[in-house]
Design brief:
Layout: E1 7-10, E2 16-23, E3 26-31, E4 36-40, E5 44-46
Antiparallel strand pairs: 1-2, 1-5, 2-3, 3-4
Protein name: DUF2187 domain-containing protein
Organism: Brevibacillus composti
Amino acid sequence: MYRVGDIVVYARDGARGIIMEIQGELCQVMWEDTFVSWEKLENLKRAE
């Protein structure tokens, strides 16, 4: 289960970001370059 503040990696390209908000199966993520987007949980994995 993901929580606000978790550091995640986008499965398709390896970009890292921080979860800012969660709504259902979507997470608002602020990426390393400060770009913010809504992503499906299935496209994210927790950073190690």
